[in-house]
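Support reply, case 0932

Customer input (verbatim):
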Amino acid sequence: MAAGLHYSLLDFVSIVVIDLLLASDNALVIALAVQALPKTRRRAALISGAALAVVIRVAVTFIAAKLLEMEFIQLAGGAFVIWIAVRVLMDASAPKREADSPRDLWRAIGSIMLADLTMSTDNILAIAGASHGNVGLILFGLALSIPLVIFSSTLLAVLMEKYPVLLYVGAAILGRVGGEMMLTDAFVRKTLQPSDALRYAVEAALIVGILVVGRVASRRGARVG
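Our regenerated output:
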């Protein structure tokens, strides 16, 4: 009994550590996705998007491994993450709107759900592995990710509001994440068999491209303003 209890505690600790380590990328994309929203709408988008994303995670937990092997899933997900990075920099240079817009709110929630789902497959597999197939532990790990991601993304959103340069840092990180996702897609691996050198080159090119687009958009926004 003591050994079984010890084993369960180790599982819980492992899952908590995994959630802490893997929440950063998801929190970053969520924080960036809500930047264009007025402050009054951000919290609703953060909570709704993260909660719905975790519900979807539960639904796809048992097919996560197959999702990683399906062609074009990671490719499309990586492209979507890169699009979010570009869009947030373009939105940052546009005039701020204080009026509430339900369309913008739902667009942010949809972006959070899609980006979180495509970025979370590895997280789901890590939690499933640490739980040794125990459904209760899997659900615990996924449920724990809700407050962790919401807290982290809320903190990042506040910091980005206070220090706008963090928007560019975050967008650059998403460029790397998006590039990595695209190059690990089953179709890309099969056809290109990308080397580490190619992966680093693609990620660097995406980071530079995203920052250049953001810089150009910022200058245009300054001229319009």
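We compared this against your earlier run and they match. Two observations from our side: Residues 2-224 form one domain. The longest helix spans residues 2-33. Please reopen the case if you see a mismatch on your end.
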